[in-house]
């Protein structure tokens, strides 16, 4: 089976590279991936593969049946939305949608899984069970496409028993893949705070209540509170401070935006309460009004130990022991965590970096790119993991 999959991966490689480049040239933001969805469906029609669509408007699902299709149902997921970033790469397939870029590799995820689908469609007399291919929109923006697809029944009829997903990683050299058992990625919450005082002329302090002073104290207290918890596997950070005053103008309002990340749900819940308490204390001390909005995002991502260990062994069989590495915990977030909360799952990383070629830029940067040889690895490995589960 390994040799058959690798042979087809080589045969389809150029087609999958072309698909990835097309997707890269026409990126679309979360919940607006209409042309991307149409392109995926056009490709499936060309290959004679049936699908269902309409999940979260643009999502697509393919159910592929092998021998004895009721024996098991494995779910595979690829996301296909892009980011609001202006691409700075000097490449022939640079984004043509100004200000939008596939800077997180979702074009590669989708192209790779299309390759996996094409391989397994040709080999469906050689494997058992059913494989459900989930092409998901809107991973990059709350509330995320995964949760909504689940609510719309994507894991039902047939009922998925196990999920896999791969994500590019530029820090990992092409030709390698990485896994981590157990907790792998953090939950993510967005923090919005408006400190509402009373503005006025800076030279007349009796006539204003300066929200900048209160916001400065608030930032320090929040920061110090979480600095005390360095070993708690959480991160709190304020990333935006907006005060529309001037040299002699005190503004009425200061607006803050930040993030909170955690690996433990109980700690996450406690931290939300601590943020509320600190905000209320500042509000009382400075005698002003503070509006706090904690927008709960994706939960922490847990890789099922048994499923992940099985995938590690199968990856070693497919790629060799030297090419399978253990990943460290990341404080970034991923809405695949919703799938992992529903069924035993494994979210693993595909190496796409190449120092010699200068492909070293990180995710979510304007010069991010991949070594496209990773697509050969990605589609083949995903196919082998799916049929070996």
Detailed description of the structure:
The protein has 389 residues and is of the alpha/beta class. The protein has two domains: 2-185 and 300-388, Aminopeptidase (3-Layer(aba) Sandwich), CATH 3.40.630; 187-296, Alpha-Beta Plaits (2-Layer Sandwich). 35% of the residues lie in helices and 26% in strands. The chain contains nine helices and 16 strands. The strands form four sheets. It has an eight-stranded mixed beta sheet with strand order 1-2-4-3-5-16-6-15, sandwiched between helices. It is elongated and about 80 Å long. It starts with a helix and ends with a helix. The model has no long low-confidence stretch (mean pLDDT 97).
Topology:
Layout (H helix, E strand, L loop, with lengths): L1 H24 L8 H13 L5 E4 L3 E7 L7 E7 L26 H17 L7 E7 L8 H7 L10 E12 L3 E3 L2 E4 L1 E10 L3 E2 L9 H17 L6 E10 L5 E2 L2 E10 L2 H22 L2 E8 L4 E3 L1 H15 L4 E3 L10 H6 L2 E9 L19 H16 L1
Parallel strand pairs: 3-4, 3-5, 5-16, 6-15
Antiparallel strand pairs: 1-2, 2-4, 6-16, 7-14, 8-12, 8-13, 9-11, 10-12
Question: What's a quick, concise take on this entry?
Answer:
This protein is α/β, with parallel strands linked by helices.
Number of strands: 16
Q: What order do the strands of the largest sheet run in, or round the barrel if closed?
A: 1-2-4-3-5-16-6-15
Query: Could you tell me the radius of gyration in angstroms?
Result: 24 Å
CATH class of the largest domain equals Alpha Beta
In the CATH classification, which architecture of the largest domain applies? 3-Layer(aba) Sandwich
Please give the share of residues in helix. Answer: 25-40%
Superfamily (CATH H level) name of the largest domain: Zn peptidases
| Mean pLDDT level | 97
Main pleated-sheet profile: 8 strands, mixed
